[in-house]
Amino acid sequence: MAQVGKRGGHSSRTSDGARTSKPRNDARVSGGGPVVAASTDALSSKLESRRGPVKVQLNTWVLASTEARLKWLVKDRQFTVTSVVDVALQELLDRYDVPPADPDGRIGER
User: Is 28 helix (H, G, I), strand (E, B) or coil?
Assistant: First the structure.
């Protein structure tokens, strides 16, 4: 049976199960006062994307001994796991003559 009433603070269901949405006018910040809308320019400058190479997530399993060595290197030399893995993979790919990819991650035809 569909729940009638408030759900998540903003949505509710009517007696026939249809969803409704109510605008929330009493938004508060942790200080208890009303939320003050910031200017669009101020928000835009904070949200500008950082320029840099496109990254993708890579998940894998490694030996416990490899992880221990990686953690030591990261702590001792103040590297990041991402930079260590990227450099190691680049060296391996270069050794096996894998063609380079463009900044968007595409490899050209041979």
Answer: strand
**Sequence-distant (≥ 6) Cβ neighbours of residue 9 within 8 angstroms:** 24
The residues near 98 (Cβ < 8 Å, ≥ 6 apart) are 107
Under 8 Å CB-to-CB from 1, ≥6 apart: which residues?
none
Token representation of residue 100: 């380079």
Phi, psi (degrees; rounded to nearest 5) at 23: -65, 145
List, for residues 36-84, the tens digit of each pLDDT value.
Answer: 555 666 655 556 656 677 888 999 999 999 999 999 999 999 999 999 9
